[in-house]
Write a structure and sequence with these properties.
This protein has 137 residues and is of the alpha+beta class. Helix content is 16%, strand content 45%.
Amino acid sequence: MDESETPEGFEPAHFSPGFLDHGGPYFLKPRAGAPKIVGLRIMPHHINYRDAAHGGVISTYADVALSHAVYDAERPRLTPSTITLGVNYLHGAKLGDWLEALVRIDRLGGRTAYTSGEILRDGEPIATMTGVFAIKR
């Protein structure tokens, strides 16, 4: 796959302007009965001095994917704010890699949401993640 291609089924996320524009672009793909997959192509602005995706890019991506799952879990949409974020780095990502974040909502309470998931490259995990979010309804 050419590094400029987006895999089938993914559409631009069009997240709100601001910080998220700098970390992406992000892409979304529906998943039956589960939160949407959030995709990210590793681009030159994501790379560190070792020609790998900077750890901050991966942690931002984890926060984006986990919080989006909470945001999109109900209608009207929820307003999540990160309380805690945990990222375990298993492998690096290189320029051109296509990543997919798969998220689970482990518990969605009245004011707090608990989430977990993994970031995959070619179906193999490169990071695991957990997040706790305050919810404004």
